[in-house]
Structure formats: structure tokens, C-alpha cells
Design a protein that fits this description.
445 residues, Rossmann fold, Helicase, Ruva Protein, domain 3, five-stranded parallel sheet, 12 strands, 50% helix
Length: 445
């Protein structure tokens, strides 16, 4: 196989020479151009696998050159832009015009080689260029329920699906905010385009420094590019690190000011908890002109529980190969007398447990009472909750997270892998969270 060809375009001879030497040592076949005119000539004389293009050049800037190549369909390979003093607007404009990535000078060898390799590999796949996107299946769960509360919610969702308005989706954990977001996307004209899901855990930087933030910022911009004509959904923005949260809000402000989301025709959805501060809500609504949707807690439409139970049983049996168990009327009635602190996600967990552990063909009331018994909050835990109400929000949240994870860790006998599955967290992020809260597997005893 012949060496892949790369064209390096930079008006600084030292940069051209250094980058050419690095890439030649990596096994690439490298050509160099120190002017836009020279680059135009060379691009017609060979088929390149990648172009490394500086933005600031004296005769013609890289953005103009890239736009001209795109408009005239001259270039058929990925382009990586370079700049020593780029702005958010410059980076966004480059990606809008089709640049694969944007790297800042001074260049680091490892970062440069990694970016170039990914760019060349990307011509053979349609995968996103950023690692922070959570892959979503094309199949999705429709919000279930025939109550007046759910009819009202679905009516609002249907109207929002026909509009290009950005959405702020508020609700308790497990109430179905993601389900609502997917439902709106799939009901809209954007359904054939990407639905990009970015979890709050992706904002958990080990060190909140300029290097880490710069990397995350670049990946967020790449995610917007990948979302073109579709939807991007940011999860639980109010629950991320306050420092990163402020930077993210500031970045949204910058992106909105240069109309990035409009340029890429991206619909933005953000989920927040019912405890989100008025400051965050006002900032998001002001920056992105967001319409707010409130997703009801399960306890506010318990009449939908029988329908939800039967739906979940059918879904598990059809898609996960569980043996079918009918849920008796008495068992369904037992579900109606539970508080459901973790909403629909908790009901889903209970149904799954009953299908896995049950022996008979029918789920009876004793099965349900036993399953729910393990979920009930003890008297001591209730007193802990009352104490939390007296703490400042951040301290209360940390204290609750610790008590919650300790409780769940005991349920799975100290198994972090099972805990990750139970609480719906990626294992690496869970380990980090446990360490930050001072929890070890020995605490399960």
C-alpha cells in the first residue's frame, strides 16, 4: 500500500519544514505550500488524502481558500485547520465549511498525529469526530399514558415537534425527559437527521484547566457540526461542576452570538432538574430563546401505571427475550400505592427484576410487595432526608448522592459494575464519583 499523501499549507517556512519532517517520519508522503496560490496549483496536480491548512496567510486566508474549494468542489479529502490565535467564530466557520478539525498552535506532535490519523480514517466511516457523543439507537420509547396529564404533555410535544424552537425540558430524575426529547425529534422533520445526546458526565473534567477545557470546547463544536439539520440534547446541565457549568454557559453565549446553531440548523434541547436555579434557567432561556416543557413526576399520573406496566413487560419480552409474565390486577393495584421517588426509571427497574426473578406465569401482589419492599426508604433514611433540607444546595446534593450510592451499593453487595448498571452511569464516571464522595466497596457491608 502506497504512503498516504498530505499537503501542508503554511506561510511560515519553519512550520512547514517541522510539520513535514514529523509527518514524513510517520510514514506519510508530504508536500508543502507557503502561499495560497501555490496550494491551489498543487491541489490540482495530485490526489491528497489530507490537507493541513493554516488560517492566517498573507496573500489569502485559509477560510477563504477552504470556502472556494468547497464551492467549486475541488477538494475531496479531509481538511485540518491550524491557527495560533483562532476565535470560537473562526473555528465554527471552519467546521461549517467542512473542515474536519481545528488545531491550535503551538502544535503538539501527539495531538497533530492523532488528529490527522482520525481525519484520514473518517473518510471510511460516518462516525462522529468527537468522543463525547453518546450513541443512541434508532429505536426509541414513546411516552406512555392515557391520563389527562400525559395527553397534555403529548399535545405540547407534538406542537413543539413542528416548530424550530429550542427546548428546556425540566423534570425529576427518571421522569422521562430524554424520552420526551427523542419523541419530539422523531415526530419532527428532523427525524432522518442526527439526534446527538451528550450526557452530563461528559463535562466531568479531572482537572478544570485551560487545556482540558479547550479540548472539551473543541469537541462540543464538533458535536454541533455533526448535529447539522438535526437535534443536540444536553443532559442535566444544572448538575455539572459549577466552574465547567459557567464556562459552558459562556460558550453557549458566544456560539449564539455568532449564530452557530442557526448556521448548522441545529435544534437545541437541554434537560434540567426541578431543583435547577433560577439563574441557570434564565441564562439558558435568554441565550437560546428556549421554550420550557415540564415532564410530570410519575406520582402525578399514577393512573397510567397499569398501562406502563403492560408496555414495559411487552417491551422487555419483545426486545430482550424475557419470558412473558402477566401482571395481575391486584399486583397492578399494589404499584399504585408506592411513591416512585425515581419515577418511570424505577418502575422499569422493578419490572425487569420481576421478569428475571419470577418463577410463575403471573406477577402477583406478593411479588410486587417484595420487590417494592427493597425500595422503601427506612425511617433512618427518612430522617437523613429531613436533615438535607437544612443544608445549602451543593452540600445537600453531595450528601444525598453519598447516601443514595451507599444504599444502592449495599443492594448489589459492593459490586461497582452492577451499581453502574443499576444507577445508569458509565463505570469510569461512577468510580470517579465514588472516590470524590469517599465511598469504597467495603462500605457495602
Amino acid at each position: 500500500m502506497s504512503a498516504e499523501k498530505i499537503l501542508v499549507i503554511d506561510d511560515e517556512p519553519d512550520i512547514c519544514g517541522l510539520v513535514s519532517d514529523i509527518l514524513t517520519d510517520e510514514g506519510y508522503q508530504v508536500s508543502a505550500a507557503e502561499t495560497a496560490a501555490s496550494a491551489r496549483e498543487q491541489i490540482t496536480q495530485a490526489d491528497y488524502d489530507l490537507v493541513l491548512l493554516d488560517i492566517w496567510m498573507p496573500d489569502e486566508d485559509g477560510i477563504t481558500l477552504l470556502k472556494d474549494w468547497k464551492d467549486n468542489k475541488v477538494l475531496h479529502c479531509p481538511v485540518v485547520m491550524m491557527s495560533g490565535h483562532g476565535t470560537v467564530e473562526t473555528a465554527v466557520e471552519a467546521t461549517r465549511l467542512g473542515a474536519y478539525a481545528f488545531v491550535e498552535k503551538p502544535l503538539t506532535t501527539a495531538k497533530l498525529i492523532q488528529t490527522i490519523r482520525k481525519a484520514i480514517d473518517s473518510t471510511q466511516t460516518n462516525e462522529p469526530t468527537t468522543s463525547i457523543i453518546t450513541t443512541v439507537n434508532k429505536s426509541y420509547v414513546t411516552p406512555v399514558g392515557s391520563s389527562e396529564v400525559m395527553h397534555k404533555l403529548l399535545d405540547i410535544c407534538d406542537r413543539c415537534s413542528q416548530l424550530n424552537t429550542n427546548l428546556l425540558i425540566a423534570g425529576e430524575e427518571g421522569a422521562g425527559r430524554y424520552t420526551v426529547a427523542r419523541y419530539i425529534h422523531e415526530r419532527s422533520e428532523r427525524s432522518s437527521k442526527p439526534f446527538v445526546f451528550i450526557r452530563s458526565e461528559q463535562f466531568e473534567l479531572e482537572k478544570v484547566n485551560e487545556s482540558a477545557w479547550s479540548k472539551l470546547k473543541a469537541e462540543l463544536i464538533d458535536s454541533i457540526k455533526f448535529s447539522q439539520d438535526g437535534t443536540i440534547f444536553f443532559q442535566n446541565i444544572d448538575q455539572i461542576n459549577p466552574v465547567v457549568q459557567k464556562r459552558f454557559i459562556d460558550l453557549l453565549q458566544q456560539l449564539s452570538a455568532v449564530q452557530v446553531f442557526k448556521r448548522f440548523n441545529v435544534k437545541v434541547m437541554v434537560s434540567i432538574s426541578t431543583q435547577a436555579s433560577a439563574e441557570i434557567i434564565n441564562s439558558l432561556q435568554t441565550i437560546l430563546s428556549m421554550t420550557r416543557i415540564s415532564v410530570p413526576a410519575l406520582r402525578n399520573h399514577i393512573e397510567d401505571i397499569p398501562e406502563l406496566v403492560n408496555y414495559l413487560i411487552d417491551d422487555f419480552c419483545a426486545n430482550d427475550n424475557y419470558d412473558y409474565r402477566k401482571c395481575s390486577i391486584a399486583a397492578q393495584n399494589a404499584f399504585l400505592h408506592y411513591e416512585w421517588p425515581r419515577n418511570v426509571s424505577e418502575l422499569k427497574t422493578i419490572i425487569q427484576q420481576l421478569l428475571v426473578t419470577g418463577g410463575s406465569e403471573e406477577i402477583n401482589v406478593e411479588d410486587v410487595k417484595q420487590a417494592l419492599g427493597s425500595q422503601q426508604t427506612s425511617a433512618s433514611e427518612s430522617s437523613v432526608v429531613e436533615d438535607l433540607l437544612e443544608l445549602p444546595l451543593r452540600e445537600a446534593r453531595e450528601a444525598f448522592e453519598k447516601q443514595y450510592l451507599l444504599h444502592q451499593l449495599k443492594r448489589v453487595n459492593g459490586s461497582v459494575s452492577k451499581l453502574a448498571e443499576l444507577v445508569g452511569m458509565e463505570r469510569t464516571h461512577l468510580y470517579r464519583k465514588l472516590r470524590s464522595l469517599g465511598i469504597g466497596s467495603k462500605d457495602s457491608s
